[in-house]
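Issue 218. Parser rejects a valid record. Input:
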Amino acid sequence: MIAKSTVSEVQIYRNSASVIRNGEITLKEGRNIVYIGGMTTTAKTEDFVLQFPENIKAVNVQIISWNDMDTDEVKESEEIQKKIAEVDYQIETCTLLKELRKTNGDFSGRMDVSVEAQEQYMVALPRQLMDLHKQLTDLNEEKDKLLKDYEKAVKEEEKPIIMAELIAEEEGTIPFILRYQEKTGSWKPKYEVRFKGNEQPLEVSMKARIFQNSGEDWKQVKTTLYTGNPAKFQGLPVLDPVQVSIYEEPERRSVAMDGMAFAGMAMASAQAMSAPANGMLGMGMAPMMKMANMQMEEAEISEEETMTAHILPGLKDILNATNGNIVVLHNFDVKADYHLLSIPRVDNKCFLTAEIVDADWPLPPAYASVYVKDIYAGEIYVDPDSDPSEKFSLSLGQDERLNVVRTELPRKTSEALIKNQKKQIRTYKINLTNKSKETVKVLVKDQIPVSTDKSITVDVNKLSDGSLDIDKGEIKWEISLESGSTTELELGYSISWPKDKKIQEKSAPLQKKVVPPAPSDNGICPTCGNQGGSGKFCVHCGSPINR
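Output the parser choked on:
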């Protein structure tokens, strides 16, 4: 007899879960061999823990399969197979009887049956056929149910079984607790960010999507979400010696570049040059749609030694193989400084931006759905810097209140014979028009080239009171633009270089943080980054793949 148990509590980490099950088992006085079920085929069988009352002594505990059990108990799947065979026989009998009734209803060529008997048979035949049809329908439904029960029983019998040798001081029924690690349990955060107005803080709701593919539903269980994962001991770090030596320049050799390689380099360069523009175009481009607010009870937050625990209120149903069980962890307001951001050198569009102090957003990186006055504006990835004193900018989507036009005036190139140099003067004008009915704060960014060669100099001629970051060549203007007004910014600079040389300009993309792929239909696992396969769960790490 296998002692059954039910799930009472789950502790879910980012990439695994601890499952706690409760059950009872009857013991006799003295030595007992007991079998305990409950662990799934996706559980880490090497990490289970059994707990009994203090007066119960465990002599031997090990994991076995059903076939290893020393018992006369018949498998449930075999019992169901017998029932299926009986139902199949009844179906066959009813089918033959139905055909026989139809055959006997054919009186052509039979002179030994009176007309009255034929009439009586034909009157009773429809009812008899209907009764047989109903019996067949009921039998087929019963068979379908038995087949599902058989499939379920086979899966149960594939699960690992704990065999324990226990010593009891007296007979009786005792409780037990089974704990194990479930490999398919996981959760990930998802934010909702709501902008209500320029004078109001951002409203942030931190939600969680919980996944599990254990093969069973966790019904009415106490649930706690942890922000980390159980630690894996990998030994202490070792400080290896660092050696320094004279660098010898390798021998140079010419390499012929074929047309395909040159084309590949040209294509890569073009992609690098256009990357910033594509990045800006992707912000806030999601279709606008009306969304309804949903109110859910928040979780209780507990700061543990190595991670944060979110204790969900009440008891939860964490269903198997779903696209995420959604819960609310907590809601809070974030103080933000709002302004419009315009980078017309890259894109003439403007974006509503919230500037937030890192310390005011003590949450893990995650995707966020953005709502501007209850209108869905798009989805962004939120990842504050690690320095709590720094600020980060959060895009709230494209803003059409500001019209921006950037124009380059004709370039002027001259030669200075004494210095043996060429000099080119470039001038740009940026016109901004506020089309809204209220005053807006605008942050405008532009740039000048940064010289990487001492023979090339870049000098600023006009800046319109902008601030220049010499190292990056970035210029910022912070302006306040009244309703219906227009302002013009002017940027001018010159480049000087040896006249017998040519200059080239190329973008040097800044190192960016790695952003995990957003949920999509491409089959990429958001946890490990591999091609997860065609199913609902990654074939590499078992994490759910949102499609």
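Fixed in the parser; the record now loads. The CA atoms of residues 406 and 430 lie 4 Å apart.
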